[in-house]
Amino acid sequence: MSDEQRNFLLAGLLTLLVLIGWDYFFGGFSGTRAPSTNVEATAPQTDAPSLPTAGSGAQPAAPAVSPGQPETAHKRPLDRKQALARTPRVPIATPRLSGSISLKGGLIDDLVLKDYRVSVERDAPNVVLLKPAGTDHAYFAAFGWSAPEGTDTETPGLDTLWQTDDRVLSPGHPVRLTWTNRRGVVFTRTIAVDENFMFTVTDAVRNPTTAPAVLAPWGLVNRRGEPKVAGYYMMHEGPLGVFNDALVEKTYKDLKKDGDFRESTVSGWLGITDKYWLVAAVPDQKIPFTGRFIRREGKAGPRYQTDFLAEQTVIPAGGERQFTTRLFAGAKEVDLIENYAELYQIKLFDRAIDWGWFIFLTKPIFYTLDWLYELTGSFAIAILLLTVLVKALFFPLANKSYHAMARMKAVQPKMKALQERYKDDKERLQREMMELYRKEKVNPAAGCLPMLIQIPVFFALYKVLFVTIEMRHQPGLFWVKDLSAPDHLTIVNLFGMIPWDPPSFLAIGVWPMIMGLVMFLQQRLNPPAGDPVQQKVMMAMPFFFMFIMARFPAGLVMYWTWNTVLSGLQQWYIMRRDRLAREGGGAA
Predict the structure, then answer these.
(1) CATH at 268
(2) Quick one: average pLDDT of 342-363?
(3) What residue ranges in 194-287 does DSSP mark as E strands?
(4) Which among 30, 193, 363, 546 is most buried, taking Cβ atoms within 10 Å?
(5) Domain range for 433
């Protein structure tokens, strides 16, 4: 086997192994999967969230269980309507959100995303992000004040019934909740919401007594059950936050294995993220706080919580103090997340979107796609145009590579002659081959570059398609309903005529088949391998890719197919021009 053939074969096998490994570790791709907040029902929990409590200093003491339990005593979980009917509520009505606030505990525990559905079908239900206690996989945010151990200041808890005269929470119309303890200390909670996904929660305390009160504000995001994750190694799902200017990510399994996480910081944020959705609390960025990620076992499985406890504040006799927390609860839209980060000076808030280690590549690719989408109105066309831009960017390098491949093809007769002459002397054959390469100015490895240089772009585009909600449920070319999901049109269900979802190893869509055919045709332009076995392996490789890529997003398969077409045209033109030049016919 010649060095050029060996290198080409190794490059192909390396790419194949990378794709197999990528699909194995990061697989399970499904852009139409229902959100992880809506999973199978389980028996209800009966234990309450662990509220952060203030010790003698500013650090939180051991977790304390709330005296009130917002969980149901029923043996079976309630449905959403039943759970909502148990407590008085204030409706939430914004252009992008619907739901309600529970006056019992002052919880934000009922939130529906108006712009997003659980699947690509038009009549699919909207995504339910937050769910009240008592339902399967309850998910909510709570806020409050904690008194130091040994003091008798009564603070509102999760069973406290707040009072309000407000009828609805909407942009420009905040809701004001009040509660007074037995000593006359007045607690006020004002909840405001913008036109997108940001809540502003202002907790105030007015102390009309003759003695000072010492309190510490807290906030939490609590989730019952362990949701199914979309891509465990491909992206982070679970508790995350920013502490001391560093992003901290803990998976659900991390908390089970390593126990609680706790860190003190002056600014930052913390919450729980899914593939597309985020619920995160952002405390006052100028006040030190201690954040925690915790896991607790309940009667029906684990519950997860991210919470913070800010430093203590003294409310003097006749005085008043307040603490503001922002709560993001919604879709991780790139522009919106970054606008919030800049508007409220939230450090590293853009990292709520898992761009990965190669953020320097994934972010530019996303913004390029987004810009092309604004021009064309189609992410599918944007992907095709992005492919052209990438080809133009690497055109000089690819040109050199294809020139090298053309020269390799031209010297094939001489290489075969050497192989025949020195077939029994491998050492002499290697020396003669190297001399031939030097004399003909051929670089055997140069032909691998077109394949290798596109791998980083391939992975970066995969990441963009996988993590950005902007790609979710975006239609592709022709029959493709969702660029972020595999091509649903397969042979085994007669291209959608049979209502059957085949196993993944049989689900070979039309686009992967087109890709395999195009790769096969391009391969015919490459110098043939000398060994018949190698030729068969190389001929079969496009079909291996076809099976592997069938589970990848349709948008990525479209990119690879179009890139292969452009590469094949470029390679054919260069090799034809070089052949005519050698034959004395001039450049084509």
Answers:
(1) 2.70.98.90
(2) 92
(3) 198-206, 213-224, 238-243, 246-249, 261-265, 268-273, 277-282
(4) 193
(5) 3-29+363-582
